[in-house]
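Field reference: sequence -> structure
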Amino acid sequence: MFFRRSSDKIFIPIIIVIVLLASSYRGKYHLKSEMPAVFFGEDLPSKKSALDEKIAQAYWKSAQMNIQWRYPYSSSLPPDPPAVFQADAHALGPAASDAATRLLYWHALQRVWYSPEIWQKDYEWDFSWISDPITAGGDWIKNTCDNLFRVH
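Structure field:
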């Protein structure tokens, strides 16, 4: 049974604010700033030039700046690279924007995408759920259920 007291006018809003703030401070996954060796292909016994490494760095930066926001942690990448996945041909030469090079690094990104070593989890304030609380609530329930029933 719920009894009304004069102190309820103070405690209920405080509790609501605490719950809203607690649900807005959450962990988000981001790609690490350092490019993994597997992405560049350093595990292969071939010789790579300094230009090749700069091109790989440019594609890794493109993944950090454009791809991780469209395809977040644990989501799948499309088979073909999106238009935003590209390197600056003016700075690195025409080989950087070549379709074959772009596809090579897209496949390299697909190989490492599910690797937990390339991701870091940072906790930050995220109030984006306020714009669409029903979808955000559904996503939260789905993620919570996935985490609870995930086979390790």
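Note: The longest strand covers residues 25-31.
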